[in-house]
Amino acid sequence: MKNASVEYPELVGKVVKQVRFANDEEFVALVIEFKDNTHVSFHLESRIGLKMQPEIARLNDGNITAWKKLKSRSTGRFA
User: Fold this and answer.
1) DSSP string, 45-63
2) CA gap 25, 29 in Å, rounded
3) How many CB atoms are closer than 10 A to CB 39?
4) CA-CA-CA-CA torsion for 6, 32, 17, 23, nearest 10 degrees?
5) Strand, coil or helix: what is 42?
6) Torsion of CA 29, 33, 38, 44, to 10 degrees
7) In this model, does residue 74 exceed pLDDT 60?
8) Quick one: which of 45, 51, 60, 68 is 20 to 30 A from 25 by CA?
9) 3 state SS of 11
10) Predicted local confidence at residue 56, as pLDDT
């Protein structure tokens, strides 16, 4: 899912009874229970990623005087 925003038309107008966050060894989920005795669950997966390319900077008396983007290459394994 690459969209920045997702809507679920089937949930429009439902009245929320309870919201639970489940953080279990087997799964992580957000569960929303509705007053009509239905519920929806969103199974979550987290990932850590860099939003910006890392930079290396030169400091002079605590001030950044020059910087450049770091180059990277894939090693295919963890060190």
Assistant:
1) ------SS--EEEEEETTE
2) 11
3) 14
4) -140
5) strand
6) -10
7) yes
8) 51
9) helix
10) 78
Q: For tokens 């290396």, name the residue.
A: 56
Report how far residue 64's alpha carbon sits from residue 72's, in angstroms, rounded to the nearest whole number: 22
Position 58: which residue type? R
> Is residue 9 helix, strand or coil?
helix
Of how many residues is the chain composed?
Answer: 79
CB of 29 closer than 8 Å to CB of 46: no
11-70 pLDDT, tens digit per residue, is 999 999 999 998 888 889 999 999 999 999 999 987 767 667 777 788 888 888 888 887
Tokens of 12: 């429009």
